[in-house]
Amino acid sequence: MSTISPETVRQVVADVIREVVSRNATSSPSDGIFPDMDSAIVAADTAWKAYLGCSMKDRARFVKALRDVALIPEHLEFMSRSTVEETGMGNVPDKIIKNRAVAELTPGTEDLVTEAWSGDDGLTTIEISPFGVIGAITPVTNPTETIINNSIGMLAAGNAVVFSPHPRATTISHWVIRQFNEALAAVGAPPNLIVTVMEPSIENTNAMMEHKLVRLLVATGGPGIVKAVLSSGKKAIGAGAGNPPVLVDTTANIEKAAKDIVDGASFDHNLPCTAEKEVLAVASITDLLKFEMLKHGAYELRDPELIAKLAALVVDGRHAVTGWIGKSAPVLLEAIGVTAPAGTRLIIAEVPFEHPFVRVELMMPVLPIVRVKDVEEGMDLAVIAEHGNRHTAIMHSSDVNNLTKMAKRIQTTIFVKNGPSYAGIGIGGEGYCSFTIAGPTGEGLTSARTFARRRRCVLVGGFNVR
Ligand code: NAD
Prior knowledge:
The chain has 466 residues and is of the alpha/beta class. The protein is built from 16 helices and 20 strands. It folds into two domains: 31-240 and 446-457, Aldehyde Dehydrogenase, Chain A, domain 1, CATH 3.40.605.10; 245-431, Aldehyde Dehydrogenase, Chain A, domain 2 (3-Layer(aba) Sandwich). The site of nicotinamide-adenine-dinucleotide (NAD) has 28 residues, from helix 8 and helix 9.
């Protein structure tokens, strides 16, 4: 009988331990959160290379896993509540609507439509292909919505994504990214398709913008970050600030316009970049419009001193004061010594066009109303108030010519006719949902096909069966 030497036993045991340790190391689930930007991006690049080997069916399954985990009712509630607690902005019921909308209505792999030419010389296709690692910068006003929206679109197009969340939404952004990594691991996706850093910061965002493995930058935020990505020397998609005007002419259904405006302007305490930020109302219908708005939870601030007091509190030069962004109407009123009637969800105030409430993107439920002499003047002023952002405008009218003229003049990416602003992002209006609306760079409401490259494949001399 042969015997095994103690040395051989030691060797076998050492080999087994090494094998077990290495298997655990490669299969241990990652939560996608890395100590520094470089290791996050390198991990995402490795993930992307593995992702190239997955089928379109795999991609669709991974996207479904993202939707499913976001749509668990407890998750919708948790992320909406936690965002309000962490950022101090917005309200839970509206954030639940926003998070649900992005999870359900962000297009997936079906958005990638192949173009083809066939003829005597053969077959040529344009395939919508991934960039690789995308660097995505997300705002404090819609932190979870943008991560869900971008993750679905970017992964559907075959990319990996490294997020640079707003530092004031770090905890909830980490939570979503962890949930996504767990959900992707459970359906067999390569680890680290969605990553971020432990401590988001401007320095980390700059490191991301400069990193050679990041092939596309997508910035959702204000003018500073849009300018930064566009100056990076890389391909960049800029989804920047808005200041959406709403114009109401004499042909509008005023009762409905009033309700739609209050609904849109108070949605998530006016945080969305798409929300109504100033009203231009033709003089002859302005009183009726205000009267109807009061029936739907608007509170009119009439005293010029109180209007000035509120302006001094919430506006600092050309910017809204951060601490008041996304606060509720009763909280804002209380700050100037006014007790809000029950059910108040929007403050309205009639002001001259030059007032800072009109010019500054407030992102709080304070809606200035400017009386204009006719629809032409309303259009002129709407164009000025929008600041050339090419973002969003709303109009209430039953005159097709007026609606058409306004749309041509204002040149916004979204133009909502006879509805609340959020109809423009698929909430109560037809069409898909996006929370990255690229006005400055022209991609419009981004989706999977936006986060992709067009590649031509040419097969010469065959496959034409016509
Ligand atoms: P913000 O510009 O302050 O921040 C957005 C992101 O950019 C954050 O992650 C922030 O950390 C980062 N950032 C800002 N300046 C930077 C710089 N110089 N260098 C590196 N990183 C920088 O905006 P916010 O307060 O988070 O969000 C509100 C703004 O975003 C509003 O102007 C709103 O209209 C706009 N917004 C636009 C869209 C859209 O789809 N177009 C969507 C949501 C919000």
